[in-house]
Design goal:
By secondary structure, the protein is mainly α. The protein has a single domain (3-515), classed as Serine Threonine Protein Phosphatase 5, Tetratricopeptide repeat (Alpha Horseshoe). Helices cover 45% and strands 6% of the residues. It has helices spanning 43-59, 62-73, 93-118, 127-148, 168-186, 206-223, 229-242, 263-267, 277-285, 291-294, 314-317, 349-361, 371-385, 391-398, 427-442, 446-456, 485-490, 492-502, and strands spanning 3-9, 16-22, 77-79, 151-152, 165-166, 252-254, 273-275, 344-347.
Length: 516
């Protein structure tokens, strides 16, 4: 990332500023085009617009939104580029601005086009497509509010220069209302297919969309369980009764093609990140069979996996021990050569089992089974997702008493936890076990992993070597990202209301509503 150009775009949604980027690869995002102006859709255009909404909803500004922030805060990866400060907790305003505007100018327009045309009374009214599009709306908006807190939500598309920010609790409760209605509306279409190949995830399978929506409800219920316990419990129990993701056949991936690439694969060409030390400590310590599925051995070795502590200063990143040649890169499946064939992870059945395991710990009715059984099911589904199908190997891992390992490097690091993989009889360790295994299973979805780390404090991750934040020390946790430069410039009244609804200072130390 080297050059930034500022463009002012007057949109039909609201006035936004967009960052034109000449990145390590040209045209990573085409910000020079006003993608916020919706064209009218007819019935024949709805499918293509939905496909665009799916792809853009997850891959918009991917480097700026996920790779340089969430992935590093979740400590899936550690940064190796000396000039990049976000791994040292520096909140780069230009990058965050590009991420925010990338969502609203790239991901939102095709989605709202589909919603507008397929709603009751719309030119291409279709209750099944409308319900699925609303499910997708919740899916793509949740990471945005989990980054910033209050965001433009209900007022998006008002055509005004000032767009009000909604408080996060209001947004989350609307998520639940929207999902419940969408699931109810899809009941009439069970066993049918809509959208076909224009649905890049499920090929239009309505039954899978119902499971996807219910799993989202379960995820949201767990997320808000500390601040809305009664609502969380009733939502989670209803979601499980309605049917959540259970098998790998329910796993959600976006198909990739020659014209629809996986942005993680493209980003690995830039040699800017490697395996984190926290990932090494946990996966190598547990002798996790997925290690070689996620990571490549250190160059010149056949089975040595090495991670990097997060937050090294530039001078230390220049040391040989911190060189990309001394660390584990991603597995070959994530390299640029496979960017058109490696599917992009969306949400997996393994996560649903870990959510249910935690629900049991809370005393919720999560269906027939125990927390231990659900925990072990989560491990099983994750293993099988990554091609590990040997039942004996999975059983041996699930019964393992191995613990996280020490990490050596420029700074040697003792393990932070003594948890095992085998289910503990100690109730004080069980939540940590669930979230640690969920963290491993969520890879490479750093967005969700960072949210869960903020919520629970698990897994136990290494402190950063150095922090450039004025508000969060090396031992602290980045709780959110600050509101963006462009919004202060062109939507000042809206963002001012957002700060009020945030309930704290507009900085990275202020906790979100569900994390109070």
């Amino acid at each position: 990332m080297k050059k930034f150009r500022l463009y002012i775009i007057a949109s039909g949604l609201f006035l936004v500023t967009a960052i034109g980027i000449s990145s390590c690869t040209d045209k990573f995002e085409e910000y020079n085009t006003d993608k916020t102006r919706l064209t009218e859709l007819d019935a024949s255009g709805v499918g293509n617009a939905f496909a665009a909404a799916q792809h853009r909803g997850l891959m918009f500004s991917w480097q700026l939104f996920q790779s340089l922030f969430s992935d590093l805060q979740a400590q899936f990866f550690a940064n190796t580029a000396q000039a990049f400060g976000s791994d040292r907790n520096f909140m780069n305003g230009n990058w965050l601005n590009g991420a925010f505007n990338g969502f609203y100018s790239t991901a939102v327009p095709p989605l709202y086009g589909v919603l507008s045309e397929t709603k009751p009374g719309g030119k291409a009214a279709n209750p099944a497509i409308f319900a699925i599009a609303n499910i997708w709306k919740v899916k793509v908006y949740q990471p945005i509010t989990d980054n910033w807190g209050p965001i433009p939500y209900s007022a998006v598309g008002n055509g005004l220069k000032t767009v009000e920010y909604d408080a996060q609790d209001v947004i989350y409760k609307d998520f639940l209302t929207t999902l419940a209605k969408s699931v109810a509306d899809l009941q009439a279409f069970k066993g049918t297919n809509v959208l076909g190949n224009n649905d890049l995830i499920y090929g239009g399978n309505v039954d899978n969309w119902i499971r996807f929506a219910n799993t989202l409800r379960l995820r949201i219920a767990i997320r808000i369980s500390a601040v809305e316990p009664a609502l969380a419990k009733s939502t989670a129990e209803a979601a499980v009764v309605g049917g959540v993701m259970e098998t790998n056949a329910h796993d959600a991936f976006i198909r990739t093609t020659a014209n629809n690439f996986n942005t993680l694969n493209q980003a690995t060409a830039w040699n800017e990140f490697r395996m984190s030390a926290s990932m090494e400590s946990i996966m190598v310590g547990f002798a996790d069979p997925r290690t070689s599925k996620y990571w490549a051995p250190v160059p010149g070795t056949t089975a040595t996996f090495k991670g990097l502590r997060n937050g090294y200063q530039p001078v230390d990143l220049g040391k040989p021990a911190n060189s990309v040649l001394a660390l584990s890169n991603v597995n070959d499946r994530f390299l640029p050569a496979n960017q058109n064939t490696n599917p992009f992870d969306v949400m997996m059945s393994a996560e649903a089992w870990f959510l249910r395991a935690e629900g049991v710990l809370k005393g919720w009715n999560m269906g027939a089974g125990t927390a231990q059984q659900f925990y072990e099911n989560g491990i099983d589904r994750s293993m099988r997702q990554w091609g590990i199908t040997d039942a004996a190997a999975i059983a041996a891992y699930t019964a393992s008493t191995k613990t996280p390992a020490a990490v050596t490097g420029v700074v040697d690091s003792a393990p932070l936890s003594d948890i095992t993989v085998v289910w503990s009889a100690d109730p004080t360790k069980q939540l940590e076990q669930i979230i640690t295994q969920k963290w491993v299973a969520l890879y490479p979805n750093g967005v969700e992993a960072w949210a869960e780390y903020r919520r629970t404090g698990f897994p136990k991750l290494y402190a950063r070597i150095f922090s450039e934040s004025l508000f969060v020390p090396t031992t602290g946790v980045i709780r959110r990202t600050p509101f963006t430069i462009g919004e202060f410039q062109v939507n000042a009244a809206g963002v001012a209301g957002g700060i009020t609804k945030l309930g704290g200072a507009d900085n990275e130390a202020t906790r979100l509503w569900w994390n109070k």
